């Protein structure tokens, strides 16, 4: 049985819908309209406030409720969605953000459905009747376009790939579906520990300020944090900084860290080695500040400043502060 | 004719490269600037087991063949020059004669810990007034009391001040010239054996090089390494072939590092509106280097193959060394020209390549001495 | 289309049944991250011949070895499904310390997608019945991060992706996992069987000793042809189709700020405002 819909698996973080979810809802609506399909947001567990917010962004919200659906766990999420598919039919496509959760359960769901799955994509569109996705290969040294040939087609999408459309608001309706989840499915969550002590999340941030070994010492990162504050940005670091033990791997941008696509990326004291660049070169605007005019980072930047970061950053911070006023 | 390395050899090469990239190369600049022997790195590297490369398994060695060892020396030389010199000395020259001639008791006392990296060894040829000219050796050994008394001073000894044992070339009869030369084992703690001044070198930092003093050092008969006295020169020739091919590959590795670095630089450095890699004169440098480097490397491996096949190849090894070191001199010079002014700054690696490469002209036989020998040989035997 | 059902089994704890764990490690040979990659046409990518065992897979190997060190008697084996180059990833596994390895498939697997690869690996794992499967979070070529979860689904076992810590609690026999989620580490508990994908920080791959390198050099790697595996009538193609390759978009040349700072800071601020990122 098929249902003519495109589903977005909603994700919440710190009690709010993720930026990625909002971006996907807009994208799903557009894709659905192009093929006369319905668009639905799937909420697994969660609160009324989430369902309400989703109903403002999606014409239909399918709210899956039942015991043990929270907190998130891969097998339980999969079971809930599978029950929905059995109940409602196979949608044309299921989209999710390429977050830790999305990357964990979506491939599993794809295998369960016998579906084609494209991971960490940066664009999706219709090529005739096939949903097609574009994604980086070899760490970004090449790109590929994949056509998904099954119903449903599953795609995880990188945060920042789509912009949130202006006319997202809609008066959607929510339907509740009871999910019957047996005990002993999947792993048991014992506790959650924050590593960034409340700092802004890198993958979600619109603006990122990143520091490398050129910052000189971990203490100097305070300057970056002040700049980040003014810009409402997240703070990222290069691998060298993590290897030196100054910062947690959680904040690492690069091939063995996080790959991000913010609107603005300011690289401070970062040499621009390829493994770092591969993690941020899809950012919309890149500004690089480095004392070495030959630094590789300038190859991958839109705007460059040659100077001592410890001087430049505070000046920039102040200029932006007065700009704000 | 098969010019390929086997899959096994390629795998070995990749593994050594990985070890050098992870353990040694991140510390290249630090070791160069500190100009001290990095004992902690030595211990880390020794744990990997490479120090027993050429030695019998019963002493903890690997019994690798000549070509495999050469692959090792080439990959090692991509990292800190000083460190690679110390390691090579340990594996090749420092322990060769002990492995070949010493009694079982000495092997257990000296060779086994050397393979583990617990004792550092070296070889002593050079003296103040004699380098390539072995007949000028003044260090002498006189028979006495069931052993030999050694007197003399050796200079330019790699790992001199940190060695736990050394193989000393001494003459038992100056009147016999080259036929009087023999090798003796002397150990730290032997009365009269001490270290003298350390040489402050232009390059190869990280390796300590200095003077060793033998003041009436008595060693028992069994410390004479070899089948009877007077065979020093014959044995030297045996080992020199490998030393020269190793030096040739050392030169290739340094040349390649210098030019690879210059290549990256040329692709990025912009002058008069375009990267300097677009200019013909710069391109010519890379073209020339490429040809000479490939030739030097091929020649070195051919010489290695000849050694492995047991063929007489004294001249081929000398030629390979002479050619590769000359190629390297040119490569580091050209690489630094590509770098331009930046090669003059200590923060970039080009200056280190220039300094490290210089010694290649002298180690394993002075360049001009080789030319003389080879020229004479050519005239004798034809092309 | 066959697929497995979720197994509602009570998880087994290592201590309860006094098991010696059997761990399977999945590895893949991929281009080095510094290898030059050039898109020659829409159908062809030229890759420099520099291949290594995938970064996260080496972490998986090291984790398995660490478990063996702490729990003597643990059995380890490594599998790689791929073309001829896959054998090198297995040699790396041997050099690092896993003696038992198998190469699944042949050169026809060179361009196999995650889906087919997972089918082949799962088929072999079903025969070997490991208690724990560890693989890298994602592979250095396609960065798909799918094989691990797909294999777990085919085996019907729970899994955790992007694991940064794994310990076996000696008192309860439970496997304790730390999983990296945005801004947090989630601490989970599991019994066996279990699959985890390795994230940076789970273990630090050591530099192999030369004796193991020599052993790996000389090893004969056993091969299991595809037709000896029970793939349950799966077809290699059918779910995805690559339409084309594309070169990465290049950024236009950088605009350098004219010296000196601080007078020109307003130039930068204006630039940012112009670009609409403030």
Structure, described:
- The complex is a heterotrimer of chains A (325), B (383) and C (278).
- With 325 residues, chain A is of the alpha/beta class.
- In chain A, 28% of the residues lie in helices and 29% in strands.
- Chain A has helices spanning 19-34, 48-57, 74-88, 100-113, 221-231, 239-243, 274-277, 309-324, and strands at 5-9, 12-13, 16-17, 38-44, 60-65, 93-97, 117-121, 123-127, 130-137, 142-148, 153-157, 173-178, 188-194, 207-211, 234-237, 264-268, 285-290, 303-306.
- In chain A, strands 7-11-6-1-4-5-12 form a seven-stranded parallel beta sheet, sandwiched between helices. A five-stranded parallel beta sheet of chain A has the order 15-14-16-17-18. In chain A, strands 8-9-10 form a three-stranded antiparallel beta sheet.
- In chain A, helix 3 (74-88) packs across helix 4 and helix 5 (221-231) packs parallel to helix 8.
- The longest helix of chain A is centred in the N-terminal third of the chain and has 16 residues, at 19-34.
- The model of chain A has no long low-confidence stretch (mean pLDDT 90).
- Chain B contains eleven helices and ten strands.
- With 383 residues, chain B is an alpha+beta fold.
- In chain B, strands 1-4-5-8 form a four-stranded mixed beta sheet, covered by helices on one side. In chain B, strands 2-3-7-6 form a four-stranded antiparallel beta sheet, with helices on one face. Chain B has a two-stranded antiparallel sheet with strand order 9-10.
- The longest helix of chain B is centred in the middle third of the chain and has 37 residues, at 232-268.
- In chain B, strand 2 and strand 3 (147-158) form a beta hairpin.
- With 278 residues, chain C is an alpha/beta fold.
- Chain C has one domain (22-228): 3-Layer(aba) Sandwich (Rossmann fold), CATH 3.40.50.620.
- Helix content of chain C is 26%, strand content 28%.
- A nine-stranded mixed beta sheet of chain C has the order 11-10-9-12-8-1-6-7-13, sandwiched between helices.
- The N and C termini of chain C lie far apart (51 Å).
- In chain C, 48% of the residues are buried.
- Chains in contact: A-B, A-C, B-C.
- At the A-B interface, loops of A face loops of B.
